[in-house]
Amino acid sequence: MRSAKLYQYQLPMDSGVILRNQRLVTREGWVVELRDGEAVGYGEIAPLPEFSRETTQQAGEQAQQLLEAWSQGDNLDLSQALPSVAFGLSMAQLELAGGLPADGNYQVAPLCSGDPDDLIVRLDEMPGEKVAKIKVGMYEAVRDGIVTNMFIEAIPEIRLRLDANRQWTPIKAQQFAKYVKPEHRAGIAFLEEPCKTPADSLAFAQETGINIAWDETVRDEGFEVKAEPGVVAIIIKPTLVGSVQRCIELVNQAHAAGLTAVISSSIESSLGLNQLARLAAWQTPGEIPGLDTMQLFAAQLETPWPGCNLPVTSLVTLEVVWQK
Ligand SMILES: O=C(O)CCC(=O)C1=CC=C[C@@H](O)[C@@H]1C(=O)O
Ligand SMILES: [Mg+2]
After folding, report:
1. Is residue 302 in a domain?
2. Is 163 annotated as a binding residue?
C-alpha cells in the first residue's frame, strides 16, 4: 500500500550567505516522503536560487504531479523531470527500496570564503588527508595568488581545491597563476572553472600546469565526460544535475576516463546533506566530498549533521502541502 507526502520547509541561514548576486536569508524547499508498507524513504527538492534553472514553486508543482501518479501505482518517470525534482524523488525512491547504504562520508573539505586564518585552524585539527576548498575570483586575482601561496607554505601537504566559478578573463587567470610559485602548483589539487568559457579554462590549464575541474560545465547542454589535458576532476552537485542514477552514471564515466568525481552540495538542509554524505561514501569512496555547507545555516532539518549543534526542526512540525 503506497502513500506519499510533500512537506514544505523554510530554514533560516547564517547571516551573510551570498549567492552570486543576492543574500540568502532563508533556504526553502520541499521534502518528499514515500511509504510502501513498512518501508519509508525521504528526498529533498530544493532548487538553489541563482544556480537552478527552476524555481521552488515550479519544482513543487512538478513533484506533486509525479507523486500523484506514483501513489496510484505508476512508476516514477523522471526522464523529463527538473533536476531538483529528479534528485529528490529518486533519492526518496532509493531509500524506500533500501538501496542507499547507511554509512556516510562526513569528512568534508573545509570551505573558506572569508578569513584564511580560520581555515588554517580547522586544517590543523583535520585528521588524515588535508583537503580544503577556497573561493577565488571574488577579489583581486593577485590576492588569490598570495592566499594560495600562504596556505601551501603553511601546510605543505595540503591539497587545495580552488573555485573561481567562471569569474576570470584569461588575463585575470594569468595574473593569478603568475603569483602562485611554480613549485607550489602541485599543492593545488584542482581549480574549478577558472574562466568564463570552458575553452579558456582548458587553455589556462595547459599554459600554467594548474589542474582544473568542471562544475558549471557538467551542467552545460551536451556535456560529455572525457579525458582532456589539464582536467582532473568533475564536481557533481546532484540537486543541479538530476537523478541519483544520472549522478552515478557521471561518477562511473569520470572514473573510466581517469578523472576524480567529487559529490558536492547545493546548500541542501541537513536532511539532504546527510544523504549526499551517504551517496559519496557509496559511490566515491576515499574521495572527500564538497559538503562543508552546514555552517551556512542557522538550523537543521530532521536528520542532524554529525557534530553540528544547531537546533533541529523536525518534519512533523512542517506544513504538509500535499498527501495521498
Ligand atoms: O563544493 C563545495 O565544497 C561546497 C559547495 C559550494 O562551494 C557551493 C555550492 C553551491 C553554490 C555555491 O555557493 C558554491 C560553489 O560555487 O560551488
Ligand atoms: Mg563552484
Report:
1. no
2. yes
Looking at the CA of residue 161, tell me the nearest atom of ligand 1: 3
> Measuring CA to CA, which residue among 16, 12, 5 is closest to residue 40?
5
In this prediction, residues 107-122 reach a mean pLDDT of 82
Nearest CA to ligand 1 atom 8: 266
| 292 labelled ligand-binding | no
pLDDT of residue 277: 98
Say which CATH number the domain at 277 has: 3.20.20.120
User: Are 145 and 91 contained in the same domain?
Assistant: no
ipTM summary value: 0.97
User: Is 237 assigned a catalytic role?
Assistant: yes
119-178 pLDDT, tens per residue? Answer: 888 888 888 889 999 999 988 999 999 999 999 999 889 999 999 999 999 999 999 999
114 has pLDDT over 90: no
Q: Which three cell numbers stand for residue 112?
A: 573558506
Which atom of ligand 1 lies closest to the CA of 293?
4
What secondary structure does DSSP assign to 254-308, as a single string?
HHHTT-EEEEB-SS--HHHHHHHHHHHHHHSTTS--B-TTGGGBS-EESSPPTT-
Range of the domain at 122: 116-294
Ligand with minimal distance to 113 CA: 1
In a shared domain, residues 218 and 254 = yes
User: Which residue among 135, 172, 196, 226 is the active-site one?
Assistant: 135
Q: What is the pTM of this model?
A: 0.96
